């Protein structure tokens, strides 16, 4: 069975994206990059994100969207801007009928690297290895790809365990107990 997933790493200046096709147990790279919003006003930036994500969905026809959740920052204004960028991407997916799934940065890193506190370079390296890429993708694009991979891995494990697991926070413990 094959499914295409778009992963989104939202940002008010750079929104990373990654598109993978999951065939059986194998993820395959379809595309990645960064939607750059420039220095315009907030409304213009949000429209650029919306239009960019909308266009990618129309081009690749994914069946699902995986979006990184907003982390709480000490700078409230930065958190709000990040949340608005995230909402813009989610609305684009929802308007085109996609199922939207949300993952924390820790869940994404855990799924791809095996360690929830992994550094960006570790995420880039593992995305390169998992997808058999010739070089490291740009950091925001790697995060978008990691988000898409997290969704595929989570969905695969959840299905394999008979839908017993609703989130990735308990998957690791259950797997360890299963293979003792």
Tell me what you see in this structure.
By secondary structure, the chain is of the alpha/beta class. The chain is built from six helices and five strands. It has a five-stranded mixed beta sheet. Helix 1 (42-60) runs parallel beside helix 2 (76-95). The model is unreliable at 165-180 (pLDDT under 50).
Strand order of the biggest β-sheet: 3-2-1-4-5
Write down the overall geometry: globular
- Unreliable runs, pLDDT <50, ≥5 residues? 165-180
How many distinct beta strands?
A: 5
What percent of residues are in strands?
A: 15-25%
Q: How large is the count of helical segments?
A: 6
What's the alpha carbon Rg, rounded to whole Å? 16 Å
The residue fraction in helices comes out at 40-55%
Question: What's the pLDDT, averaged over the residues?
Answer: 88
Which class of secondary structure composition applies to the elements?
Answer: alpha/beta
Secondary structure layout:
Elements: E1 2-9, E2 14-23, E3 26-36, H1 42-60, E4 64-68, H2 76-95, E5 99-103, H3 105-112, H4 120-130, H5 139-160, H6 171-178
Parallel strand pairs: 1-4, 4-5
Antiparallel strand pairs: 1-2, 2-3
Helix pairs in contact: 1-2, 3-5, 4-5
Summary?
The chain contains six helices and five strands.
Keywords:
180 residues; 6 helices; 22% strand; 5 strands; disordered C terminus; alpha/beta; five-stranded mixed beta sheet; globular
């Amino acid at each position: 069975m094959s499914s295409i997933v778009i992963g989104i790493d939202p940002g008010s200046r750079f929104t990373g994206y990654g598109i993978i096709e999951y065939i059986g147990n194998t993820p395959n790279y379809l595309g990645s990059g960064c939607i750059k919003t420039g220095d315009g006003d907030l409304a213009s930036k949000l429209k650029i994100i919306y239009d960019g994500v909308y266009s990618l969905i129309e081009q690749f026809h994914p069946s699902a969207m995986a979006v990184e959740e907003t982390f709480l920052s000490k700078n409230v204004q930065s958190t709000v801007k990040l949340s608005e960028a995230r909402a813009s991407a989610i609305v684009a997916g929802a308007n085109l009928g996609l199922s939207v799934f949300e993952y924390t940065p820790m869940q994404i890193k855990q799924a791809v690297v095996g360690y929830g506190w992994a550094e960006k370079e570790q995420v880039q390296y593992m995305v390169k290895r998992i997808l058999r890429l010739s070089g490291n993708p740009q950091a925001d694009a790697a995060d978008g790809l990691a988000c898409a991979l997290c969704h595929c891995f989570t969905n695969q494990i959840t299905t394999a365990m008979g839908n017993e697991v609703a989130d990735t926070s308990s998957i690791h413990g259950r797997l360890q107990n299963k293979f003792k």
